[in-house]
Design a protein that fits this description.
The complex is a heterodimer. Chain A has helices at residues 6-16, 23-26, 32-45, 54-62, 82-94, 103-111, 130-142, 151-160, 178-190, 199-207, 227-238, 247-256, 275-287, 304-312, and strands at residues 265-266, 273-274. Chain A is an all-alpha fold. Chain A has a single domain, classed as Glycosyltransferase (Alpha/alpha barrel), CATH 1.50.10.20. In chain A, a hairpin with a 6-residue loop joins strand 1 (265-266) and strand 2 (273-274). Chain B is mainly α. Chain B has 17 helices and 3 strands. In chain B, helix 1 (4-17) packs across helix 3 (96-115). The chains are: A mainly alpha, B mainly alpha. The interface between A and B is large, with 46 and 54 residues. Chain A: Its EC number is 2.5.1.60. Chain A: It comes from Carex littledalei.
């Protein structure tokens, strides 16, 4: 098992950009901007952000913007969507290059996606999901433009997606899912609305996600997966119930999912690695204050120093 | 090897020609040898080393996926560029140029979503075109395309979301959704049969509940019972039942139900009782299933909220205590399933005491009957020791 293989993971993340020919990589092209966020945040948490050239990244990111709407697509020439707009803002924040953005234009795009009932559509086609509520709120908060939306209604919609088990789903009546819970708890934290949460009840559901192998699952009866180290753990931290699970066992589970030869972290021990799980593994360890890693903010999903730079150095 | 453009043309012709196509698979070149080559006498010319099409099934060789994908991306983005300006400049939508650009974009976007089901921009191109049409057949064909893609990519978020977009359009323009809801419910069941606890599929079904009539909700509840009995570990299926039950309970409390069969308190009570009894039967039959106990928490919660001040409360709690006690074992050396059952029963008891503060006193009075559940929970699941201790009675 051993320690976190920082050098190997750095090499792995940097190598992803070079492998582009196989079909598996090609069909991921449409979400490259999110891939950039996962990779670069992991690098930054490991103090390795210096291994990329910020100018190249910024130029590429800006070429993913749809000039008309102001939103960002997942790659050059793709339609804009709020998910990739947040990824763009987060990456620029990490690189301390938010000045590259036309903040009014981008925030108008995001704010324009709010619906009458307070919910958010992902793009102009109208699919609604609490994920988009989080993404929009997080994005606008990072741009200091939360005032452009009706925060009260946005909160009401999120609260309407709460289930009797204390968790949250995609839409009112949707099944509780750790990923959706993170989104709802994160959005409520950013908007200062955590009083809508029954911390003991939600904490109960969340801590029941820890399984015998130390890992966390995302729903009852599911297998453990490294990505829930982020979704569950960050939510537990935000609602101040993280002491209810065994952090040592969880750290061991994540470290066991490393590919110590080629670098990268997988969903479960001995599976194939990918950048998504590499990020969530590193982020999970950072939440548990693993030595040598930067601390990550559980609501903004960015290193704490980046968040501080945005909110305290104005 | 043939050029990507040629291959793409062949693929697009197959997709156009076989309107009833219901399954697609990407397979290894060596697997082509095992496929039945006595194919129907095709009028189509395609390279049988890379494509196979029979009985409305299509196989594509792994070998050509990358060139096919690249060609599809390139052709789609050209078609998209050509389409937009025409829409803007053309007042007469029927013009030949316009129709040609539409057909072009539909053809290339279809090939692209077949090859890469989560390519959002290609799905959007189709929405762009469809939103200018008022033809129900066209919308139904689009649902069929999404079904085809879900047959091999059951978690494709874009394919599910595209379905919802189409259904919303049909609801706005043609209203009657009864037949559609029936089809959707069959589709979700079929997909969930093959791929367990598919969040996207069940979420789609939850989304549809708001379009259902009360009678449909009741029908779904009764039809789903058999399915649930065969899939007792499928938490999503039980969640969906809860979604339906909430609809029924809401209707009964607001008196919305027009069929009048569930607008009485006594009916609500017997409805919940029926579900509780059925759930208990399953808990006893299928030992150690978390999904079943989660469902019980929900049912008890509803029951207590409705009837906590009722004379029935003591009877209810006696039965719950009986169930918990028979499931508890004190020795952690028992077989795994039995141990898990004891763990779930103990957690359920603790949950009852916390989740319904109005009955805390009654639960407290019974805690001796259950024994030291906190110690049992700590013993079986030590990783949550602090949690059990802070929740303990």
């Amino acid at each position: 098992m051993g320690e976190l293989a920082v050098e190997k993971h750095t090499e792995y993340i940097l190598s992803i950009e070079k492998r582009k020919d196989d079909f598996e990589s090609l069909v991921m092209e449409h979400l490259r901007l999110s891939g950039a966020y996962w990779g670069l945040t992991a690098l930054d948490l490991m103090h390795k952000i210096g291994s990329v050239k910020p100018d190249d990244v910024v130029t590429w990111i800006m070429s993913c913007q749809d000039k008309e709407s102001g939103g960002f697509g997942g790659n050059v020439g793709h339609d804009p969507h709020v998910l990739y707009t947040l990824s763009a803002v987060q990456v620029l924040a990490i690189l301390d290059r938010l000045d590259a953005l036309d903040v009014e234009k981008v925030s108008d795009y995001v704010a324009g996606l709010q619906n009458e009932d307070g919910s958010f559509s992902g793009d102009m086609w109208g699919e609604i999901d609490t994920r988009f509520s989080y993404v929009a709120i997080c994005c606008l908060s990072l741009l200091h433009r939360l005032r452009k939306i009706n925060v009260e209604k946005a909160v009401d919609f999120i609260v309407s997606c709460k289930n009797l088990d204390g968790g949250f789903g995609c839409i009112p009546g949707g099944e509780s899912h750790a990923g959706q819970i993170f989104c709802c708890v994160g959005a409520l934290a950013i908007t200062g609305s955590l009083h809508h949460i029954d911390r003991d009840l939600l904490g109960w559901w969340l801590c029941e996600r820890q399984c015998k192998d130390g890992g966390l699952n995302g729903r009852p009866e599911k297998l453990t997966d490294v990505c829930y180290s982020w979704w569950v753990l960050s939510s537990l931290i935000i609602i101040d119930r993280v002491h209810w699970i065994d952090k040592d066992k969880l750290s061991k589970f994540i470290l066991n999912c490393q590919d110590l030869e080629k670098g990268g972290i997988s969903d479960r021990p001995d599976n194939a690695v990918d950048v998504f799980h590499t990020y969530f593994g590193v982020a999970g360890l950072s939440l548990m204050e693993y030595p040598g890693l930067k601390t990550i903010d559980p609501a903004y999903a960015l290193p704490v120093d980046v968040v501080n730079r945005i909110f305290f150095q104005k | 090897m043939e050029e990507g453009d040629d291959l793409l043309l062949q693929l697009e012709q197959i997709l156009e020609n076989d309107e009833q196509l219901d399954e697609i698979g990407f397979i290894h070149p060596t697997q082509f040898a095992t496929l039945d080559t006595n194919s129907d006498s095709h009028s189509l010319q395609f390279n049988t080393h890379f494509f196979w099409n029979k009985d409305h099934k299509l196989a594509i060789s792994f070998e050509v996926l990358s060139p096919l994908y690249r060609a599809a991306v390139q052709k789609h983005s050209c078609a998209r560029r050509n389409y937009k300006p025409i829409v803007r400049s053309c007042s007469k939508e029927g013009s030949e140029e316009f129709l040609a650009s539409e057909i072009d974009l539909l053809r290339h976007s279809k090939a692209l979503v077949v090859l890469s089901p989560n390519f959002p921009t290609a799905w959007n191109s189709r929405k762009l075109i469809l939103s200018n049409h008022h033809d129900l057949t066209l919308f139904l064909n689009e649902l069929q395309l999404s079904t085809l893609i879900l047959s091999y990519s059951p978690k494709s978020e874009c394919a599910w979301s595209h379905r919802r977009w189409i259904i919303k359009l049909i609801a706005e323009r043609f209203q009657n959704l009864e037949a559609i809801i029936r089809n959707e419910s069959e589709l979700v069941k079929k997909i969930c049969e093959k791929f367990k606890m598919n969040y996207r599929a069940w979420n789609h079904w939850c989304w549809l509940v708001s379009y259902m009539t009360t009678q449909q909700v009741l029908d779904e509840l009764s039809k789903l019972r058999k399915w649930a009995e065969l899939h007792v570990a499928d938490n999503s299926c039980f969640h969906f039942r809860r979604r339906l039950l909430v609809r029924v309970l809401q209707n009964s409390s607001t008196g919305k139900a027009k069929d009048a069969s569930f607008n009485e308190e006594s009916h609500t009570c017997s409805f919940l009782e029926g579900e509780l009894e059925w759930n208990e039967l399953l808990i006893r039959r299928y030992v150690g299933r978390e999904a079943l106990w989660m469902h019980r928490r929900f049912l008890s919660h509803c029951w207590i909220n409705k009837f906590a001040n009722d004379s029935k409360l003591n009877m209810f709690l006696d039965r719950e205590m009986q169930l918990v006690k028979t499931c508890l074992v004190s020795s952690p050396d028992e077989f795994n399933d039995i141990l898990v059952q004891a763990y779930l029963a103990a957690a359920y008891f603790l949950w009852l005491s916390k989740a319904a503060p109005q009955i805390r006193y009654e639960i407290h009075g019974r805690s001796r009957e259950a024994g030291d559940v906190t110690s049992l929970l700590v013993k079986i699941s030590p990783e949550k020791t602090l949690f059990w201790q802070s929740m303990g009675i």
